[in-house]
Structure formats: C-alpha cells, structure tokens
Amino acid sequence: MNSFSYTRAQEVDTAVREVTQDKAAKFIAGGTNILDLMKENVERPDRLVDITRLPLQQVESNPEGGLRLGALVSNADTAYHPEVIERYPLLSKTILAGASAQLRNMATDGGNLFQRTRCYYFYDTATPCNKREPGSGCSAINGYNRIHAILGTSEQCIATHPSDMCVALAALDAVVNVKGPEGERQIKFEDFHRLPGNEPQYDNTVKTGEIVTSIDLPAEGFAKNYTYLKLRDRASYAFALVSVAVGLDLDGDTVREARVALGGVAHKPWRKPEAEALLKGQKATKENFRKVADALLQGAKGFGSNTFKIELAHRAIVRALVMATEMKKK
Amino acid sequence: MSSKVLTEPIGDVAVGLPPLQRVTLTINGAEKQLEVAPWTSLLDLLREYLDLTGTKKGCDHGQCGACTVLVDGKRINSCLTLAVMKDGCEITTVEGLSKGDQLHPVQEAFIEHDAFQCGYCTPGQICSAVGLINEGHAKTTDDIRELMSGNICRCGAYPGIVAAVEQALKVCQPNQ
Amino acid sequence: MTATTYVGKPTSRVDGRAKVTGEAKYAAEFNTPGLTYGYVLSSAIAKGKIKKIDASDALSLDGVLQIFTHENAPRPAYFDRKFKDDDSVAGSPFKPLYDAEIKFSQQPIGLVVADSFEVARYAASLVKVEYEAEQPDTNLRRKPKGHKAPKGKTGFVPPKDRGNADKAFKNAEVQFEAEYFHMPEHHNPMEMFASTVIMEEDGKLKIYDKTQGAFNSQTYVTKVFGLSKEEARVINPYIGGGFGSGLRPQYQLYLAVMAALELKRSVRVVLTRQQMFSFGHRPGTLQTVALGAAQDGTLQSIKHEALAETSRFEEYTETVVNWSGMLYHCDNVKLGYYLRNLDLYTPLDMRAPGAATGIIATETALDELSYKLNIDPLELRLINYAEENEFEGKPFSSKALRECYHQGAEKFGWARRKPQPRSTREGTKLIGWGVATGMWDAQQQKAAAKANLSIDGKLVVGSGTADIGTGTYTAMTMIAAETLGLPLEDVTFKLGDTTLPQAPLQGGSWTVSSVGTAVQEACEAVGKKLLKMAKKMKNSPLSGASFEDVEFVEGKVQLKGDYASGVSIIEAMRQGEVNFIEEETTALPNFLKQMKYARNSHSAVFVEVEVDEDLGQICVRRVVSAIAGGRVISPKTARSQILGGVVWGISMALHEESVLDHNLGRFMNHNLAEYHVAVNADIHDIEVIFVEEHDDIVNPLGAKGLGEIGIVGVAAAVGNAIYHATGKRVRDFPITLDKLL
Predict the structure, then answer these.
(1) What residue numbers bound the domain in which A258 lies?
(2) Burial letters for C108-139: b for 16+ Cβ neighbours within 10 Å, e otherwise?
(3) What φ, ψ does residue A72 adopt, rounded to 5°?
(4) What's chain A look like in SS3?
(5) What integer pLDDT is reported at residue B7 of this predicted model?
(6) What's the pLDDT at B3?
(7) How many CA atoms does the CB half-sphere of C91 hold within 13 Å?
(8) Residues on chain C touching A40 (C-beta within 8 angstroms)
(9) Which residues contact C534 (CB under 8 A, 6 or more apart)?
(10) Which residues of A touch C617 (CB under 8 A)?
(11) Per-residue confidence (pLDDT) for residue B176, from 0 to 100
C-alpha cells in the first residue's frame, strides 16, 4: 500500500471538487474493494476522499413511482429494507447472494457499482494485465481463466464484472444518478458499465470527479415472478461463475415482459433486449426459455478453463426462468 | 530462453510518509484519543498499536472474517476499514464482550459446543455471531450457516459453530 | 467412575476460555517496545535470476532500517545439513537470500525492515527488481514420467510388491483400470506464518514462532546461526492451525532471526495470505489403479502407481500407494511411486499426507469395480477384508474396521441403498450414496514430560509439544489429572516452549500416544513418591502396598477400590516434609512389543450427496464417519478432530485446488477468495462414531491418534456418492460443477 493523504468530505460538492482537482485522488466509502486493491498495489491513489458522511443515506420514493437508493446506503440495509423486500425482492435476494454479512454491512450501493474484476492477473502485479497496466498484455487469454468472460470480450481483456447486485440492477433497468464538476446527470444502467474493447482500464462510463449520488429503481419491480440464480464454486462467500437475474411479468402462462441479466460472463452485467423480446406474448415454457438462452449466448466464446460457462449459462438461464415462472404457483 | 520482466515500481507517487491524524474511538467502552496514519487499518490499529490482539488477521483482504469486530453494533471486517474513517464510532472487539468474569452467552456456547479447535478464527466467529444476533435475520439452521459463512474456520468446526449460535440465539436478545 | 476420572469423559477444552476471550496469543501477537517489522519481498518469476535490485527509494523512507537482499544479506551457514530439520527430505534445503537464483514463484528475495508494519509494506512496494526469466516447468501432466522416489524421510517406506500382479490381472475374470488425478492444495491455516523475535538485553533471542515443533525451530536456528540453545528459546503456546504446514521451519523464521541478529533489534515477520502460497503444499499426483477380481468379488490383483511432484532441490516423498497393499486382502500387489522435479517449492506434509490422496484412487477404483461386479460396494470391502497387514506381513495390534462398517452402515441406513446409479431423485436433485475406507498409522515417538505437584495440591505438567487445535492442552490435562486423582482445575499443562522437556513435532497423529504416555509416566513417577510417603505415615493403611495395588482418586491414594484406605496426598506430602514433588521422565515406545504388529487406525465413511441434474451443484447432505482409533482419551475434542477431518475431506473433494498458470509457473488463486475452502454453508450433518479398540500394544494409553484418520477416505466417498447420484464418474479432483455438466 502506498502513502496517501486522507480527507473527509461533508458535502457532495466538496467531494467532487477534491477529486476533480487531484487526478490521483479517489473516493472511499465502504472501502471493501479499494483497500483490498491498495494492499495489492493495484490501486495507488495519493489521496482518499472519505464520502461516508455525505447526506446520501436515504431510501426514498422517486418521482417515477419507484425507489431511490442513496449511494451510501449499505448493501445490507438495502437488502433488508422493507420496501425493497416488498417491491424489489429480486434486488434483495441478489444482494444477499453476494459477499458475506460483514462485507454487506460495509459495502455501499454506490460503491458496489465500482467493484473491480476478480481476474487473478489483474490482482497480481507480478503478471501482465491490460486492465491494470494498459499495453502490458493479457495473461488470462492463454492462462488460467476459469472465472473469465465468454461474452463481449476483446483481444485486450476477458475480465468479468464481479458484482451480484449490479446484475439485478441491470435486470430492473435501474438508473444511476451522478453529480460531477459539470453538474448532475443520469446514466441508464445498461450504459453504466462498458465492454473492455481497446481500453480495458475503464470499467464504466463515469467521468473523473463524478460521484454517484443515488440509484433509481423504476416502478416495476417484478415482485411476483423473479429469481436470482447464482452458481459458484462453494455454497457461499464466493464470486459467481455464472449468475442469472430474472424478472417476469406473467399473464397466466403467457409472458408479458421478461428481463434476464447474466453475471460472471462479461465485463458488465449481460442483457440483450432482443433475446428477452422472444418471450413477449409467448408461453412460459422450457422450449421458449431455451430460445432466450440461445439468443443471449449468441457469439459466446470460451478460452479454455472457462469454456464450460457457455453450457452452464445456457442451463442456468433456462432454470432461472423456470424458477421465476413457478413462483406464482406456490 | 530468456526475457526480461520488470516489476512495476510505484512511479509517479511521491515517496514520503503520510501525516498522523487525530481520531476519537470508543473501544470496548473506553474512549480513546489517538493519532493515526491514514493507512493504518482498524485491524492493525487494534493489534499493533493498542495491543488488542484478540482480533485476528487471517488474510487482510476481507476473505476470511477473522478480523470481524462490531462497529456501532454491526459486524464488519476490520482489515478493510481505515481507522481514521471510524472517528467517533464505538468499536467492540472480542475483548469487550465479557462482563468481568462473566462470559458473553455466545462465548459460553462456543466453549460448550467445542465450536473451535485452533482458536484463531474464533474471536471473529464470536463477534460475527453477536452481529448476527443483533441483526435478527437468522430464523433457521440454514440461515445461520449462510449468515456465518463470512467466517472461515479452517479447522472445520462448523457443526459446533452452528450449534453454538443456535443456542446463543435462544438466550440472547438483540443488542445484548 | 470417580470424580477424578476424566479419560473418556466429554470435557470442554481447558484453553477454551483463553480462546473465546482473545487472551490466547499467537506468534505475531507478542508485542515489545522497539519492535520492528519485516515485510517479505517475493519473486515475480518462477525461474531465472535476479539481475538487479534497486532499493534506493525504499531505503530513503523515514522509518526504514534496512533492506536485506541476496546482495547484502549474511550467509550464516554453508552446508545443507545445517539447514536440515526434523521433517526435511532428501536434497538441499532452500536457503533464503543466498544468491540471485530464482527456483520458484514468490520465492523470498528480500526483507524490508522498518519501524512500523505500514512503512515496511510501503517500502517493499518501492523496491525495483529486474529479472532474467526462464520458462518454468510446473506441469506434472505435461510429461507423465518420473524417477523412483529415494528413501529419505523417516516414515516413508518404498513400496514393495508381492505375488505377480501383472499375471493375476491378466487372468482375472473382471478387470478394471483407470487414471486418477488431484490438484495440489495449500494448507492455509487461518493464522499466517509469523515469527516475533525478541532481542533481549543480554542478546539472547526469545522467538515466538508459528511452528508445530518448537524444538525443531530451535534446532534449525541454532544450527544455521551458530547459536546455543540458551541463546534461542522458541515459544509457541498457541498455533492458529497447522495441518502439516508448521512441520518445517518456514522462511519467515530464518528472515526474522537474521534481521534481529544483524540489526540487534526485535523483529516481527508475518507472511501475507498471498505468500502463504509460496512454500510447501500437498503435491498433485497422477495415479493409475488396476484391479483384477473374481466374479464373486475376491480381489486377485491390485496395481497402483503414482507420479508426484517435487521441487528441483528436494525429493519430497509421502506414502501414496502403499495403502493399496494394506487395505484389502490380495495375494498379488504391484506398487510404484515416482517423482518428477518441477519449478515449484518442495511439497510439504498436509493432513494425512499420501493417504488422503492415494486412498482416493484406491477407494474410487474399488467403487468402480463394485459396479462392474454388480456387488454392493460395502459388501465388496467386507469380502476382501484384510485380517492382517499384508504389506508389512504382520497382524494388526487391533483392527475394528469391520465394526466401523457395520455401525456406520447401520447409522447411515446403508441397507436401504438402491444399487442402480441415478435411482433417487428429488425434483431436479439427484441423490446418491457412497462409501469408502480410510487408514492411517498409529505411531509413537520418544517424548519427555515433567510433573510438579506442590503441597497445595496443584499439579503443573509440562512438555514442549504443541496444540495446533488438536486439543493437546485438554487431553494432557485430563491424563495428568486422572493419573494423580486430582480435580481438573488443579492441573495446569504447559507446552510450546523449548525450556520444557523435549517433545517431538506435532504431526502424524502421534501427540496423544507419545506425549500422553510421557505425561502419564511423569505423573506416575510423582505418584510413586507419594505412595512412599503415604506408606511411611503412622498407621498407614497402605503399608505394604505396591504401586500396582493402589490408585489415585479424588485427592487420595488408596488401595484399588477401597475408599476407606485412602490417604490424602497433601497430608502425605506434609508428613513427608516436602513442599513439592517433581519428576521428569522420557517415554520411549516399546519397540520389542510394537515391532511384531502393524499399528493402524481405520475408518469407514458414508456420504449422501445431492447433485443438481442440470447445473452440477453438489451438496454433501450427510456424512457418517465411523472411526477405529484405539481408545478415545478426550471424546469432545476427539469428535472435533474427526468433524474437522470430514470437513477437510469434503473441501478436498469439491473445492480445493491450487491452480498454476504454467506459462508463469505461478499459483494464481493465491488468496482465500479464489482458493476455496469449505465455508459454513457447505457443511451439513456429520455424525461421528467411535468404535473403541482396546490396544495395549500401540502405547500404554491405547490411543491411536485422530488427527489424520478423519480426512482419509472422505473425498473418495464423496466422489463415489456423486457417481451413485448421477452415473457420472469424475476421476479428476476436486469435483467442481463444470465436471458434471
């Protein structure tokens, strides 16, 4: 860990200013990821701006009839919030499938969006990694890539986004509110994270100095038919190999609307509206679900140790859709 | 065959030490005014500066739970927490759970059910269990298993840990 | 049963309070004024040379005292023998910071010493290292050819054949042959390796070391650094898990002592979790098993061959294949054990070394054979039950394995097993049952103990053994208290200090048998003196009694079973005009008695798994482990030992693998997030059955040791249950979900 200075911001504007002025400064909130990375010398900020005391701690209604999650609400408080449980049980379930109780108490909703990949090579400064050191090469492509991406990869990077929560937020069409030196703006969740392309060092589209202030959940929460299916190498406290967040709006056996987002397979939560559209007005059957899986995984490519993910994801999508469908019957 | 590898030195960051900062922490009920460097984790502060070595370092990366302490009653990983960030907070470590000679019911239950072997993960397990009881979300045995999964026990004392937490849940009220 | 009968009675851990309150201190927790901190620099490459190290930026930092590298570090000893320790293998031990050569990834290449941990860690990140790298070879499977393992370490007996296994296999009615592989694993005790070396005013060193043998560390330090034993006291009252990783002194000990002597300061060196992957590990092995049997299930031929990895500088051996010559009756056995040198650190004994891995292959192959024969796998094991140890050609001192099979099967409900694979289903879950046998050695080593009984009735017993979580404190306290008939709370057992009588390394499941015997003998020696004094008392009811005639119960010495004859031991000491009685004894195994017998512990493990048919997710729902491990001294801690072993077995079967990137020669999942050990949610019902054996051959206590037997057989039983559930045989461990798709 390098040497850095520490300041605590009391207002959003001050925080934004401090990080805008200092290129090597970073925000810190829950700290669960940045401190981990700093101890590995992967992140080396020269200043940390503590934003934990900013007034972004509320869960409240938003103008669209949905819910607004303050950026500094902890993952645990979000998951156990009565309104989240009632209206967005998919989000609650997804958060609780991630990390550990301790980490969920620390990690914030805003911070969760900024989790960096678990790629072994990204974490190990002894090895080349384009995400950590652009131009140094990707060790994972021809190396050990069990946890790596099968979709949206580039020749530069095959890392995955490790968050669970973000998979649910993607499925729910959440909107991220940010504030920066140039004022406030909204980022649709699908635009928040990016694919690696030729600039794998950038995980998302947030600009320097911008701070996430809140996350908006739209009114529709798919509270009746949903599931989060997470497949991993042990029963708990492990990152997803493949995960699937599903929200269904059903009319009897017919699908009015479907949302399917995948985790663990790409540099961002993976969604494909045209795949979901295949279910619109169709019966909720395994056969139709398989078509969705085919479409979602079109172009999937394995790199050796992660090739199994293609088949696993296919089966997981079908299973998750079945699970979500069967909820109403209970 | 031969090639060159150069480990990446920290390039553009100025070499120097960070200044100390003043924080006030209430640790196991006692208020302490301390001068701490920003890079000192709460865990290292406890172990290396305050001689409170009950809280353990098992990975230093939030991957094992040995460093679990309670901050304002909530369980967290002290290894991923900067001490300066907890200014004004109440910290409870394993050393602060018993009242004099009277062990906390979770501690009693751990002994009774032999919920440990080497003892290294134990303080973290116990603080985590106290946090779990405070949270009030564990209703079934499987809930306990899941909600205690952030604490790795390499000796494999999980059956005893689950039995101990079940017993403690019965006798403890939240926030005791 | 008297109030001071403890052996066999469930007793809470005597060190429990210290452990639940945080009072128990581990190697990195002894603080001292002026302590400095060492942070280890690790090699980025696996093979090659260091060309240049530039530590100037790091050295310029305030608070940095010194940066040791091969360029400036002392070389206190030259000969390999100086670096050999009690668990050394053949070859040349690694010597830290001796030269520019890199032999394995994460090799320690420097030590930064600073006045705080944070400064040392920061300074380490400023050191620039330039290497000349060569392509490492770390892939055991790339070239599956090895050389014969040399006879080296104590305990390893090169495998020997009997009969003609090739011919018998060829002629067998039913033949089965397969290849098995399992990945390397790292011990990963929760406590990271640490040494705190306290430089005392007189220049002597007080060394708090994470080790499974204080004397081993002391001998190493004295030999390497030319110190006397008085100058290097090693202390390890608590050890946060060992599992074998602490059987050899690790490099943090060398570095901390080196720095302390050079700087004349107290130094603490703690490895990071990442660096916990930089030294010994359980070696991966590639094994083939061929079994020939008659149609009735009688084994006619067993062939078992293993190829294991070792480093380029040492020849690590463990007993992998010999078990196949001992587990079952068979006249024709052919065994082979080979090593291949790779660019890795030398492997290191890890819980039931060799047995945990070799028996995976044997017990899986036997299961496969059972389906081929259409014989129940438990029945097949009973058909081929070995009445004597045919590998050693000796009868067993005791063997209650048959009872383990029966009691385990009864408890598990094995009789209800449906023979066909894929015959039980609950929704999308397939349910399967598996069984396997386990075996380990019952060994005894030379050990010494001292007992001191004072006039206030308090007994202090000491031996320089360790308690890595095994329950040594508790078992020894129980043995001592019972031997002298004292209340448990009046007995203190001390361990983990080289000023105590010498004890062997804590490993091999021999601590209770070795140290326990010494403790018993030391207490008996005290008892003999007590009896002498009691007999001299006026009108002593014991006059004329020999030591064999009396017993010590509830603070008294009395004629066996005759409460009225009791004489208070405090009174006896008072009358004998002594304030204390102290006796030290060294207990040696009775070789003459023991050598006629094979001495082993056994187990039968029954497992129920549930496997998701589509997704491959596996859950071990139920385990019954029936153990024949001699006499159980401390049932509560013994049960925990077996539970822990079973958890290890599950973890080995399903989760654990240290994965190498062969391009880099580096273990890439070197942390606890990606090296998966079982978590609480992975573990469900585990039932432990002890089938007691009365065995006065293994040692006077009759205990066989329980540290390892609990893990052996579990991984195979899990794999066998997975096959029974799914009809899919996985011969590549761990069995992760992708292998079931």
Answers:
(1) 225-329
(2) bbbbbbbbbbbbbbbbbbbbbbebbbbebbbe
(3) -100, 5
(4) CCCCEEEECCCHHHHHHHHHHCCCEEEECCCCCHHHHHHCCCCCCCEEEECCCCCCCCEEECCCCCEEEECCCEHHHHHCCHHHHHHCHHHHHHHHCCCCHHHHHHCEHHHHCCCCCCCCCCCCCCCCCCCCCCCCCCCCCCCCCCCCCCCCCCCCCCCCCCCCHHHHHHHCCCEEEEEECCEEEEEEHHHHECCCCCCCCCCECCCCCCEEEEEEECCCCCCCEEEEEEECCCCCCCCCCEEEEEEEEEECCEEEEEEEEEECCCCCCECCHHHHHCCCCCECCHHHHHHHHHHHCCCCCCCCCCCHHHHHHHHHHHHHHHHHHHHHHC
(5) 42
(6) 39
(7) 21
(8) 274
(9) C540, C542, C557, C567, C569, C572
(10) 231
(11) 44
User: In CATH, what number is assigned to the domain containing residue A314?
Assistant: 3.30.390.50
Cα distance between residue C538 and residue C22, in whole Å: 50
Task: Name the domain count of chain A.
Answer: 2
Q: What CA–CA distances, in Å, run from C503 to C216, C235, C242, C451, C526? A: 10, 13, 17, 14, 20
pLDDT for res C156: 82
Interface test with B, best of C15, C20, C39, C656 (most B CBs within 10 A): C20
Q: Which of A118, A144, A231 sits opposite C737 (nearest CB)?
A: A231
Q: What pLDDT is attached to residue C157?
A: 85
Q: How many CA atoms lie within 13 A of C520 on its CB side?
A: 20
Structural domains in chain C, sorted by start: 16-23+445-588 (3.30.365.10), 31-135+190-241+246-277 (3.90.1170.50), 163-185+281-443+595-740 (3.30.365.10)
Burial class (CB in 10 A: 0-12, 13-18, 19+), C699: buried
Q: Which residues of A touch C114 (CB under 8 A)?
A: none
So what's the pLDDT on residue C521?
98
3-state secondary structure of C277: helix
* CATH of residue A10: 3.30.43.10
Structure tokens at B169: 């849940």
Domains of chain B, with CATH numbers?
Answer: 21-95 (3.10.20.30), 105-171 (1.10.150.120)
CA C4 to chain centre: 31
H/E stretch holding C54 reads strand C48-54
pLDDT beneath 50: ranges in chain C: none
Average pLDDT over chain B reads 92
Name the residue among B112, B120, B159 with its Cβ closest to that of C683. Answer: B159
DSSP letter for each residue of C357-374: HHHHHHHHHHHHHHHHHT
Residue A307 has what pLDDT?
98
Q: Touching check for B82 and chain C: CB below 8 Å?
A: no
**Is residue A238 in a domain?**
yes
Q: Is A36 an interface residue toward B (CB < 8 Å)?
A: yes
Q: What is the pLDDT of residue C429?
A: 98
Q: What is the pLDDT along chain A (330 residues), one digit of tens a residue?
A: 999 999 999 999 999 999 999 989 999 999 999 999 999 999 999 999 999 999 999 999 999 999 999 999 999 999 999 999 999 999 999 999 999 999 999 999 999 999 999 999 999 999 999 999 999 999 999 999 999 999 999 999 999 999 999 999 999 999 999 999 999 999 999 999 999 999 999 999 999 999 999 999 999 999 999 999 999 999 999 999 999 999 999 999 999 999 999 999 999 999 999 999 999 999 999 999 999 999 999 999 999 999 999 999 999 999 999 999 999 654
CB contact under 8 A, B85 and A103: no
Q: Does B103 touch chain C (CB under 8 A)?
A: yes
**What confidence category does residue B9 fall into, taking pLDDT thresholds of 50, 70 and 90?**
very low
pLDDT (0 to 100) of residue B6: 39
What is the SS3 assignment for C648?
Answer: helix
